Amino acid sequence: MSRLRAAARLVRRELRACAVTVFVLLCAPALLTAQCPSPEDNPNLAFQRHALAHRPPDEEPLLPEAGYLSNTHYTSVFFGFEFDLPLPVQGHEIMMPIMPDKQHALLALQFEKGEQSGYVIVTSTDPRPGYDVNPPEGNQQELQKWANQGNFGGGQNSIPVPSFLLNTGRFHSSTHRNGRNYAIQYWAGIKNYMVKVVIGGNDQEFLHKAKSLMADAHFYCPLEDGSLLTAEGKAVQPEGRPYYGPTVPTFRVNAAIHNEPGKNIPSGKVVEGTYRNAELGLQYQLPAGWAPLPPDTSDPPPIEAAALRIYRFLHACSQTLLTIGPQHPAEPKDQPAPMIVLRALDPNCLSMHTATSLTDKRTADAVAASLEEMSEFGEIASDELMTMHGHLFMVFHGTLATQARGEDLGVRMSQSIFATRYNKTLLLWSVIAADRDALGEVPASNILFDGSAPIPLRASLDPKKADASPGH
Prior knowledge:
By secondary structure, the chain is an alpha+beta fold. The protein folds into two domains: about 1-245, no CATH class; about 260-465, no CATH class. The chain has nine helices and 25 strands.
């Protein structure tokens, strides 16, 4: 997972590198635009008017991150452009950190082969003050007004297409060099947003191929329902699968922080050595001699803006249900005592897909990368999939930097996390101890779901004890 962290640092560095160029463009008085088909010339727009008039008010608007991705091709349906990729997607996708408010991550790919490397990063930024903008919900309001009030006969009282449907029709570009490394920056003003494509690296063949493909990029007219039209009004069928970028879309992060759906997760309670949560259908037997620990107030939220945003997002979408430790920690006393933390995450709030079979390793890797980006789950070195009594578990092994209770200095502890999805909730048990040997000494305990046999937590730390196939 360290490669994902390195890639995230690369992303942040390259975005800072192109900030000056983008600032100059944002200060320009206007951007070139090209007119998309008018409503009176295209029945698709009239159909969209009818659909918008009947859209549920709480339906999610089309997001800036909305697109399609195949192994060789990327299409943005929100901004209306597409281009062939200079490297295959499979094996080269990287996770990006949650973006700041008003910024959006559309695509991030990277390759390393010996000393050669290259990357493709696509982002967008909301319009600067004065060039306002419609964020997604604003676009929806303008289109709703257009749908309800306009007539499309081309007469004196016809309502024009909303201005944010205009398109620049091309990318501008500039090239920068730092030793053997090059960065080619492409930008375009679309819907009053600034769209940026940064392609860089030290592999000349990759860079030449990327420049050629970007020269052939196509622009279309995007509609609010996610469909695309050519300038002549012909419908475009995007290639690949629906795709919402390499991190959680900014609109969803903002909505989660505002609504805090994690507060709706029932907390449960410990009764006679067993944690019980009837609403989640869960029981968890505490290890013998272990008891709940009081809340730790020594670790306040981060101060730095990006880290605080991630913290707020995670806690808006989750609940810490239980933290337990031994009542009488064993010797030696100079080692931090082990603990187990049970959390419940709302995967829909986190826009997190979870594994559905023992062969779904790619999804387990993506979950591991997402947990790493949230920092509270530490660094994940490996992951695996196993089933126990018919329940599929994702198991993650790594380390966690933590501060022992009552101590001033931080320590790095070993950690195994196992996670399973149940009743629309992702349940995570984090087993934490001083080192791998101490982790192996954490006493066994059992999980019980409604109607299930006891599932031993210890088996998650020893793959040989897990079932070999789903449903066993």
